[in-house]
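in:
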């Protein structure tokens, strides 16, 4: 399904069938990553570029952020 601008809408959040708990967000509470991911779903790449530029040489953080964005 797509929104009026043509960007894909995110999948609905469904609780885990075994436990009833909501699924774990892969962003793990990283507010900057969540904002960049939201911008990416709307076709805006600059937020992702800025996020990765501000990540610097923290390779573990960069790897995690790239994995979530992928």
């Amino acid at each position: 399904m797509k929104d009026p601008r043509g960007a894909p809408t995110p999948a609905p959040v469904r609780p885990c069938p075994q436990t009833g708990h909501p699924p774990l967000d892969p962003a793990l509470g990283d507010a900057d990553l969540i904002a960049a991911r939201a911008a990416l779903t709307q076709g805006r790449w600059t937020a992702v570029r800025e996020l990765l530029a501000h990540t610097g040489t923290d390779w573990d953080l960069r790897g995690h952020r790239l994995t979530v964005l992928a």
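note: The radius of gyration is 14 Å.
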